[in-house]
Amino acid sequence: MGKLVLGCIADDFTGATDLANNLVRAGMRVVQAIGVPATPLDADVDAVVVALKSRTVAPAEAIAQSLDALRWLQAQGARQVYFKYCSTFDSTPQGNIGPVTEALMDALQCDFTVATPAFPDNKRTVFKGYLFAGDVLLNESGMQNHPLTPMTDANLVRVLQAQCTRKVGLIDHAVVARGVAAITERIAQLKSEGISIAIVDAVSNDDLLRLGPALAKMPLVTAGSGVAIGLPANFGLAPSSQASALPAAGGLRAVVSGSCSLATNRQVLDFIQRGGAALAIDPLRIAAGVDVAGEALAWAEPLVGKQPVLVYSTAEAGAVKSVQGKLGVEEAGAMVERTIAAIARGLVDQGVRQLVVAGGETSGACVQALGIAQMQIGPQIDPGVPWCHARAEAAQGAGVHIALKSGNFGGDDFFTKAFTVLA
């Protein structure tokens, strides 16, 4: 068995596959574990991504989960640790990015690390410490309306400093553009000033590739998935088509969506406009005690054998806030997640073996409901979203191809394109 070189901890399930996707594209063989495994690693891989559901839990619980993952990765011999969060850096004033970063630094006796959510392939760039989503600042991108982690400030130094006891600084674009020597020199300067964490600018993949070699000896890297493209070369690895090979796909096809992001709203609309079979579920009917999952599965059963079906709770920001006002933010989200997870399991019972799940929290709920313990990472559908293959308890141990899509990722035609890529 090959020696594990990179151990990754992701704060949600779609983020984990996003990271794993970039590592695979850069030549690493990757397995994604759903939660911290109970047994030692039994796979010939270069990297493991441990997927947690820790982004929106209490900071103390996020820290405990992350340290548990760290201990397991250290026991498998990981030489470097990567803490992965979303490319929109979304969190609350209490965390969890800052608290988890500092807990990992303490555990690894790490005196300095970097932080950057930059992912240029998905139009997430950092300049002068400010995070842009496309051509606008993060707080003007729609993320200010996120139902769980609204982002109203695009200044990452300020956002992260509010969550940390250590001092946070900046490695700006002028430094990054000069390459590894300049980056290394800037790190030394920041350390001499008592700064322990640095936001790093990146507006292109070239910036990330320049950053990669400067991180080679860093015990802990924290980032979105973009930085991953520059790390495999540090271990002597290069892109290879074999890294993304999956078993052949078969079975029925379906999409479930719990994301309310602007991108997912457009994807749902595109699927419907193309004549796709789609059913919207109403959170207020769930709250009223109606068996919405049962209704959705009854609707899908005669259709799914003929074409892909979509079941979604996606809604515009105003509608989401209305439901939250009636049910409460946490209860509204958890209730929809439970229902969509039950629908996903029921669809697999009906023979679905190609399943797309949209939404980070929704993906976590669905993977757990399907009884998936680990996933092999395959080819990319759109930047940040690969197809994966897993054995699922819900399929009596049979293989299922599954794609976990962050709400903000993917082109408008993603739900249609995904099945074309797999075919």
UniProtKB/TrEMBL annotation:
Gene Ontology molecular function, alphabetical: ATP binding; kinase activity
UniProt keywords, alphabetically: ATP-binding, Carbohydrate metabolism, Kinase, Nucleotide-binding, Transferase
EC number of the protein: 2.7.1.217
Four-carbon acid sugar kinase nucleotide binding domain: residues covered: 254-415
Catalysed reactions, semicolon-separated: 3-dehydro-D-erythronate + ATP = 3-dehydro-4-O-phospho-D-erythronate + ADP + H(+); 3-dehydro-L-erythronate + ATP = 3-dehydro-4-O-phospho-L-erythronate + ADP + H(+)
Domain of life of the source: Bacteria
Entry keyword annotation includes Kinase: yes
Stored NCBIfam families: OxoTetrKin
Name listed for the protein in its UniProt record: 3-oxo-tetronate kinase
Annotated organism of origin: Variovorax paradoxus
